[in-house]
Amino acid sequence: MRLSAAVALLLATSAEAFQPAFLSRQTTSSSALAMSTKMSQDELKKLVGYKAVDDYVKSGMVIGLGTGSTAYFAVERVGEKLKSGELTDILAIPTSVRTKEQAETLGIPLVTLDTHSKLDVAIDGADDVDDELNLTKGGGGALFREKIVENCATKFIVIVDESKIGKGLGPAFPIPVEIVPFCHEHTMRVIADLPSCKGKCKPILRLGSAANNQVDGENPAVTDNSNYIVDLHFEDPIKDPAQLGRELKNVVGVVEHGLFCGMASAVIIASSDGISVKEAK
Known about the structure:
Layout: H1 5-12, E1 18-19, E2 34-35, H2 41-56, E3 62-65, H3 71-84, E4 91-94, H4 97-106, E5 119-124, E6 128-129, E7 135-136, H5 143-150, E8 153-161, E9 175-179, H6 184-192, E10 201-205, E11 228-234, H7 241-249, E12 254-257, E13 259-260, E14 266-271, E15 274-279
Helix pairs in contact: 2-3, 3-4
């Protein structure tokens, strides 16, 4: 794949330049342009966000708009291309209230799954990605809406910078679990006692803002769905993320978990060495 002309122009006019060197990531399909000077994390996020829209979003599509600091740039790019006329007849489904507000500001036409249950493509970031393209999502608190929307997409394109690529899910980023407020302490104890969790992780109730997993308040964080979030802190990589996901879904009181296993069609990765695309096998 090649960067689109629009993205290439964006980079050419920035202070960052590219060189031809490329570090392979053993991808099924990959492309990269190496950067002569190190780009900031926000610049890397913008790069993959724009590339995902340029490569995968076409006029006439129904698309899913992700949530988070990387997905923000993909939404921005959709708005830009609609305004310029490069894209037409786009309908979008946002995965959070703040993404909805951003899309409305940009003039992106919005619908819901109630009227459009089949999406052509969804684009979103991730908090952690393993070698099998299993994901941890929900650092921004939108895991339920993200999963229900992205599960309806023919293609789910994940956009990340190199800091999100790991060897196993768990240690690098806690696994968010959305639970109902009613008897939430009981639900947390049940989760802690699951076979995949017992003695392996520490469930911690998210406090303050639901939009991050940092303690920035005294009260439980509340999601867009009026639920709480429990973050599961693992010291070692989770041996079977899909199994943990099944166990969590069987707990009464759990709404959804942040393990997105077998859902990604491709992951676009930006690093100081270049851009690579790893596709699902």
